[in-house]
Amino acid sequence: MSDISPASILYDASGNPVSIIADGGVFWVAGLNKVSNASGAQINPATQETLVSADGKLTTIDAVLDSIKDTDGIKKITDQLPAGTNEIGKVAQGTRAAAGGGWPQYVVDNAGNIVGVVLNDGIYRLQSEAQIQTRAKGSTGAAHPTSVPIDADRQALSVALVKDPAYPNDPGVDVRVVDNAGNPVGIVLDGTLYRFQVDAKVAKGASGLVHLDAIDTDSEQGRLKATLYTPEGESVALGAVASSATAIRNDFVRDGTGPPGSPSLLVDGSVTPVVFTYTAHPTQDISLQEVKFVMAANGITFGTDYFGATAGPLPNGLLVEVTAGGVTGTVALLQQNEDFVNFASPGGFEWVVSSKDLLASTWLVGGGLKLEAGSADKVQITVQDDIDSAGVYFRCFVRGNLLG
Hints:
- There is one protein chain.
- This protein is mainly beta and 404 residues long.
- The protein has four domains: 10-67, no CATH class; 121-175, no CATH class; 187-236, no CATH class; 245-402, Sandwich (Jelly Rolls), CATH 2.60.120.
- It is built from two helices and 27 strands.
- A hairpin with a 5-residue loop joins β16 and β17 (235-236).
């Protein structure tokens, strides 16, 4: 037997013999594409190219990665990303910078237009030229722009609604005191109080049944004088009571025949009219309460145009006038007995038939007229015909209350 051992053949998993090739003192298996060299690196036996170094790195791929690594060890991608439609989710914006590097924030309108906002003493407000568009409630017309300057003493927004003339009865837009015709009633600011202007008048209803007049112009006073009228336009008198017996001024109208003057109206005024008056008080205003005629005659008839017991009607008549506040107005012109019925207030006419017929006719003023102190205000009766035979008694009595 020889000293050389029998040949040993290697087989692969399929039973095929594997060739062993000697190459510079290194044996490698024929048919494999890589083997290890003497340094432990895997090589390509065909090209002797090192594929995996002794420290286990893939030399070819690592060389590429090393080429795209910067000095901080952060991987960079130098090629631009392809265009696409998908959004990148959950990307942090970072922290807003204190200066100009932060994300801008805007106030915009419905059309996306930027609204001017400025910083004023630590408070953001709209610019002074900013406008807010508004319109009257229920309106379909053009909007009404309003511009309000804003300063340190004014709030950031101040909205003023303008009443649309096309909608005069539109609620919730304009707050006014108006009459039934929609005309504003004059109101003025006096100190810290609002009051009606002196000439302001408020009427209720188309016929003006209630009439209000401001009688105070001093600050913190706002008394109103109310006058009631019948649907026919006549004032409705409400009786007033004097504060004391000394505040009553009741007297007949008298002629100018010397103090106190004659109260009898049975005179001849056909040529020269005879004037009888009830004059103002020198120091106190007088609130007129009533004016009353009383006549007694042997026969007072109606329906035959008589004036008292004298055939009529009178051609000129008995003129009744009142001057109040410097303004003179005619109350009545009495020409026949029926006129006394018209002169009287409701319930103020009385006719008694007896041995001497009695006629009483009372106009209840109720304080609706005032004779001002020391003025020419008065109640005046002028006899313009001859009525000295109209009866046995004929006078006019005036009741008044002194004011103040």
